[in-house]
Amino acid sequence: MRTYKNPVRRGFYPDPSVICVGDDFYMVNSSFQYFPAIPVSHSKDMIHWETIGFAVTNSEWLDLSDIPDSHGIWAPDIEYINGRFYITATLRLKGDNTSKDKVLRRQLIVSSEKPEGPYSKPVWIEVDDIDPSLFVDDDGTPYMAIAPGVRLVRLSKDLSRAESEPVVAWSGTGERCSEGPHVFKKDGWYYAIVAEGGTGYGHGINTARSKSLFGPYEPSPYNPVMRQLDPAAPIQRSGHGKLVQATDGSWWCYYLCGRPNEGKFTTCGRETALDRVEWTPDGWFTVNGGRGPSIQAECPNLEEVLFDCNKLDDFDSCELSKDWQFVRNPDIGNISLSERPGFLRIWTGDGKLSERQAKNTLVRREKEHSFSAETALSFSPSRNGEQAGLVCYYSTTTYIRWGVCFDGKQKLILAVNRGEGETIEAEIPRPEEEIIYLKVLVEKQSRTFLFRTEHTDWKKAATVENCTFLSDEGFPKERKRHTGTLTGIYANNGGCGSRIPADFDYFNLS
User: Of the residues 15, 45, 275, 503, which is catalytic?
Assistant: First the structure.
């Protein structure tokens, strides 16, 4: 008996939506302010996943350059309709709920004949709410389900426009934050699913059914079908799910979860978990027998297919690995894999890491609570503010940067932003050799930063002992924190206006 461990998609992969097409499974997840937008992942065995593309790769079609942290793309859904893959998602704009005269949210839909894309230019459905999903009824009529609860918007046959106002089909069970709606039909019943209880601790999934699409819906006697009730369990925040049927006829539920890291701090953000669905004799379903999220469970009855983890990127390819994400839209003219073969060149641009206009901050998801990341950098700054190196990044308000900077002279600087502005934790004269090797060792909430040259061993610069600020819960003053910590590389001019190259020889996350 093969087993798997949750979460199956580790790191910042929240709000999963999964479909089965033939023998293949495809997943999309929220990407918020990161670009390209909406990663599309592929699996053959439901356990091992590989990113194969993105729903939006053209910055002219989706401008996230001034989107606040944890805004942008929320809760996508993927469906296969009439031979095409359709993805819908919310674009969460600037502003707050006090801005009554301003649209805060709109919905996009893209499509492609291939799951990896390229996808069409987005069409916009002007419904000001969150978490859209798609459902096609037996007569071929497509609908968008959208929160709060399950509200249904009839769409045109080509899914390019709304043809009705939202109509409430099911308002949920009465728990707070009824969101993440999905609708599917089985054995003559329409099943509605919502995530309730808020996306933090206490999150859960509830369901109801009806013989009519628009109700009335009867709540399940087994609600919540998913919720973590053990506050000491290693998997928490379990909710926002979608059911999928495998090729062998078995049913499963993918849902988001979070792994606490030394307290209620989910450093890796909200991740994707999987559990088996069981159908009761009277036509209801439960997830993992109502026991909450499993830590380890029996694998689906499918042949195991592994993918390369791509821990090392030596930048020898002509294009970036799909494991990379830019913080907001990049300035592609300031990125090159060809100007210095075997290196990734990032030209410094305007904007500090604490500012939204900082471009070409390039990061990868942290997938474990203990790991190391390392890079080699060739960089010769000469004006105050110029900087490049490693970054452990949560948001513009919370991050750690470690690299080569110019401040009167070239230095190695470790700077920490815990939410109230940067503090310098270490400042070391730069070694004279051209290439500097930078490293971070992560052990739960402790991060140790090191450096070396070609001819020296690793030397410790400093340890940041309490890194809880790099988590969804780590800076309570910031109300929207929905992503997770990512680690990578960056280069900017700190506001001095210069444009000079920073060359990275490799990046290894292991």
Answer: 15
Question: Minimal CA–CA distance to 219: which of 173, 158, 174?
Answer: 173
Distance CA 348, CA 359 (A): 9
**What does DSSP say about strands 410-418 and 398-406: parallel, antiparallel, or unpaired?**
antiparallel
User: What is the C-alpha separation between 111 and 224, in angstroms, rounded?
Assistant: 33
CA distance 496 to 510: 34
Q: Quick check: 30 and 49 in contact, CB under 8 A?
A: no
pLDDT per position in the chain (510 positions), as tens? 899 999 999 999 999 999 999 999 999 999 999 999 999 999 999 999 999 999 999 999 999 999 999 999 999 999 999 999 999 999 999 876 665 657 899 999 999 999 999 999 999 999 999 999 999 999 999 999 999 999 999 999 999 999 999 999 999 999 999 999 999 999 999 999 999 999 999 999 999 999 999 999 999 999 999 999 999 999 999 999 999 999 999 999 999 999 999 999 999 999 999 999 999 999 999 999 999 999 999 999 999 999 888 899 999 999 999 999 999 999 999 999 999 999 999 999 999 999 999 999 999 999 999 999 999 999 999 999 999 999 999 999 999 999 999 999 999 999 999 999 999 999 999 999 999 999 999 999 999 999 999 999 999 999 999 999 999 999 999 989 999 999 999 999 999 999 999 999 999 999
Three state DSSP letters for 219-259 = ECCCCCCEECCCCCCCCEEEEEEEEEECCCCCEEEEEEEEC
How is 348-380 classified by DSSP, letter by letter?
-BS--TTSTT----EEEE--SSEEEEEEEEEE-
Check if 308 is active-site. Answer: no
CB atoms within 10 A of CB 187: 8
d(CA 45, CA 428): 49
Kindly list the distances between the CA atom of residue 151 and the CA atoms of 16, 145, 165, 169, in Å, as whole numbers in the listed order.
Answer: 20, 5, 9, 6
Tokens of 188: 């003559």
Cβ pair 235, 445 in contact under 8 A: no
- Residue 282: C-alpha distances to residues 222, 279, 285, 286 (Å): 12, 8, 9, 12
Burial string for 143-159 (b: 16+ CB within 10 Å, else e) reads: bbbbbbbbbbbebeeeb
Name the residue type at position 325. Q
**Residue among 69, 79, 131, 179 flagged as catalytic:** 179
Note the Cα 332 to chain centre separation in Å. Answer: 22
Active site residue 314: no
Q: Decide: 324 and 330 in contact? Cβ < 8 Å.
A: no
387 touches 411 (CB < 8 A)? no
